[in-house]
Specification:
- This protein is α/β, with parallel strands linked by helices and 472 residues long.
- 23% of the residues lie in helices and 18% in strands.
- The chain is built from 13 helices and 17 strands.
- It has helices spanning 18-29, 45-48, 65-71, 87-100, 102-105, 196-199, 211-226, 242-245, 254-268, 339-342, 357-360, 383-397, 401-405; strands spanning 11-14, 34-37, 108-109, 112-119, 135-141, 146-151, 153-156, 203-207, 231-235, 273-275, 278-285, 290-296, 299-305, 307-310, 367-369, 409-412, 444-447.
- It has a 5-stranded parallel β-sheet with strand order 3-2-1-7-15, with helices on one face. A 4-stranded parallel β-sheet has the order 10-9-8-14, with helices on one face. It has a 3-stranded antiparallel β-sheet with strand order 4-5-6, with no helix packed on it.
- Strand 11 and strand 12 form a beta hairpin.
- The chain is globular and about 65 Å long.
- The protein starts with 10 loop residues before the first strand and ends in a 25-residue tail after the last strand.
- It holds the Pfam family Pyr_redox_3.
- This is FAD-dependent oxidoreductase.
- Keywords: Oxidoreductase.
- It comes from Isoptericola hypogeus.
């Protein structure tokens, strides 16, 4: 076969979400040619699916610097820097205009799903001349046509939103889980909006103990107040919800403490039923409901529900990368050098030192996992962290080693997470979570090379899963 000159090929970016489009913007500034492949029909397709959720961080921290430099000459005006956008507002007010700029639009292919990535002309076992070879990216279009794209490098920013963890025990699907898919809503249903009829006057099971679960539970509690017959069961695998309830008044972020307090109050008042040490072993779908079988606190569990919210977290799609030589942590499935900083067994807060190309590199040079996918199964990703990742990667691909290694991250004291705390109805600021809040005048925390991992705000509770036991 004729070997294509690697340097003449584009850098393929997988995913046109915030981090993927930021990667394209940084590559363009470096004089490199990006090609962005997006499975959805438009940029930000995954974010649009949870468009009702409000971000923690105000606009000032949601826009990448290189993306801003592309947008402003095109007449784009930044929204109120202190306003908190929803996912929908972020797509419509930022990602869509960014994708429409001539520089990005001519290099964006929507409706194009990546099936596999490999070194061009070499399977995973072949080493001879491997570093001279580019990449072959196999794609399928909306019409079903399969096309291979050649690339000098690949930046995988495809995220994890499409691959939720299963409902079953031990990380495996429950028996019958695929057959019960019609009753599983996804992790962030619009309970008070578009999906209201699916939950009103019905019994819902929420599975999970992150802020996605808390968000949905509080919305369901609000719905139950307005619609009689709406019942809620919450199932967690740990022995205690203490970690999600938070440290109350001991929490250095009051809104985060308030979120946990509200959820705890709802449980204590009997407005929802909490099942601890829950193990879902079988799902039996029926005509209009599904039977959930398993155990809770070692006692038999048998529930009949109309919907199951699988707020169980996410995992990366690694099947498409089987022919790439990766260096992944066996626990978190993140790059090995990054994994100790984000392992959920130790961390329940989204404070991670800035990191760049060196931490994200793999044995196959020129391949990078960035954004949420770089965090593997860990749930603590910060949007601003992803922007710094791709800035560093673009610098490295352009041969600017000094810029690639000089990682620095300016964060609000709150971090950059997303959740809707259902507080707006009470006139309160939508702010909080393990990762932070959005005060009116947020302080900046500058993290440079070698910054400690513990920069952040105490929650008043034991961090990580070590706080999940009943008697901790």
């Amino acid at each position: 076969m004729v070997e294509t000159v690697r340097a003449e090929l584009p850098v393929v970016v997988i995913g046109a979400g915030p981090v993927g489009l930021a990667a394209a913007a940084h590559l363009l500034e470096r004089g490199l040619e990006p090609l962005v492949l997006e499975a959805g029909e438009r940029a930000g397709a995954a974010m649009s699916s949870w468009g009702h959720v409000r971000l923690f961080s105000p606009w000032r921290y949601d826009v990448d610097a290189a993306a801003r430099r592309l947008l402003e000459p095109a007449g784009w005006t930044s929204p109120d820097p202190d306003a908190l956008p929803t996912g929908r507002e972020l797509v419509e007010g930022y990602l869509a205009p960014l994708a429409a700029t001539p520089a990005i639009a001519s290099r964006l292919r929507t409706g194009t799903r990546v099936l596999a990535v490999a070194r061009d002309g070499a399977d995973k076992t072949r080493s001879l001349g491997r570093d001279r070879r580019g990449y072959r990216v196999r794609t399928v279009g909306a019409d079903g046509r399969v096309t291979d794209v050649l690339a000098r490098a690949v930046i995988d920013a495809s995220g994890t939103f499409s691959t939720s963890n299963p409902l079953g025990v031990s990380g495996l699907p429950a028996a019958g889980e695929p057959d019960a898919a019609a009753f599983v809503t996804g992790p962030l249903p619009d309970v008070l909006g578009a999906d209201r009829d699916r939950f009103a006057g019905r019994h819902t099971l929420v599975v999970g103990m992150g802020h996605s679960a808390a968000n949905t539970l509080l919305s369901l509690v609000e719905l139950a107040e307005a619609t009689p017959g709406t019942t809620i069961t919450w199932a967690i695998r740990g022995g205690s919800a203490r970690r999600l309830f938070g440290g109350g008044t001991d929490d250095e972020l009051p809104a985060r403490g308030l979120l946990g307090t509200r959820l705890k109050d709802a449980v204590d008042a009997g407005r929802l039923r909490l099942l601890t040490r829950a193990s879902i072993e079988q799902l039996v779908p029926g005509a209009g409901s599904v039977q959930v079988l398993g155990t809770a606190k070692d006692a038999p569990l048998a529930l009949e529900v109309h919907a199951i919210v699988n707020a169980t977290g996410f995992r990366p799609d690694l099947g498409m990368l089987r022919e790439v030589r990766l260096d992944l942590d066996p626990v978190v499935e993140a790059p090995s050098a990054l994994a100790p900083l984000i392992d959920p067994n130790q961390h329940s807060c989204g404070t991670v030192p800035p990191h760049g190309e060196q931490v994200l590199s793999h044995p196959d040079d020129g391949f990078y996992l960035v954004g949420m996918k770089s965090y593997g199964r860990a749930p603590t990703f910060l949007l601003a962290t992803g922007y710094e990742q791709v800035r560093s990667v673009a610098a490295a691909l352009a041969g600017d080693r000094a810029a690639a290694d000089a990682v620095e991250l300016n964060l609000p004291a709150t971090g950059v997470c997303s959740t809707d705390l259902a507080m707006e109805a009470d006139g309160e600021s939508a702010a909080g979570s393990c990762c932070g809040s959005a005060p009116a005048e947020p302080q900046l925390v500058t993290l440079g090379v070698g910054a400690p991992a513990g920069v952040g705000f105490a929650s008043g509770i034991v961090h990580g899963r070590s706080g999940d036991g009943e008697d901790v």
